[in-house]
Design brief:
By secondary structure, the protein is α+β, with helices and mostly antiparallel strands. The chain has one domain: Jelly Rolls (Sandwich). It is built from three helices and 13 strands. The strands form two sheets. Strands 1, 2, 3, 4, 5, 6, 8, 11 and 13 form a nine-stranded antiparallel β-sheet that branches. Strand 3 and strand 4 form a beta hairpin.
């Protein structure tokens, strides 16, 4: 796991099993035309190969995501394999940004065959440029992504709800 100094994102190496499942999911989404949610972002829904990859990713990443969250003073609420929102595969075009809802952490599963240049963004402003490779999951907390390279990026979007450890233990909101 490669984590940023501030802990707001990290890249996680795909396991061998996930790489094998990823091949089928990539083959599937490349042949489909997405439904456009907005001009620069399309949705593939959750095809069977993507669903299989999603389920395997959720199971495999429970300890990794819980460890990462605890290092940030956070906890993933609910069971990490039962998301609040249905996983979905997307295609992001160069001019579009994707930002998780406040209070959420997202795990992006690459559905691409080549590395892509992205900007990590906060409040609409670029924070850092990175290269996202097909063999790495991208975990984001309080950051979004924008595609820098030409073309598009395909990925599966898995969203977790997070909370501070203090708030979760006490059951009361923490005053800041």
């Amino acid at each position: 796991m490669t984590t940023a100094a501030d802990g707001k994102y990290c890249f996680i190496e795909l396991t061998h099993q996930l790489k094998e499942l990823q091949k089928d999911a990539v083959t599937e989404v490349i042949t489909l035309t997405p439904n456009h949610r907005m001009p620069e972002m399309g949705s593939y829904g959750l095809t069977q190969p993507c669903s299989t990859l999603s389920n395997a990713t959720l199971e495999a990443m429970v300890p990794v995501i819980n460890h990462w969250a605890s290092r940030q003073g956070m906890v993933i609420t609910g069971h990490p394999t039962r998301l609040m929102f249905c996983p979905e595969a997307f295609r992001l075009e160069r001019s579009c940004c994707l930002v998780p809802a406040p209070g959420h952490t997202v795990l992006l599963v690459p559905l691409m065959n080549v590395p892509t240049s992205i900007s990590l963004i906060s409040e609409g402003n670029p924070v850092k440029d990175e290269t996202w490779t097909p063999d790495k999951l991208l975990l984001l907390s309080d950051l979004g992504i924008q595609l820098n390279s030409y073309g598009n990026a395909r990925f599966m979007f898995l969203m977790y709800h997070k909370d501070t450890i203090h708030r979760r233990r006490c059951g009361q909101p923490r005053k800041v």
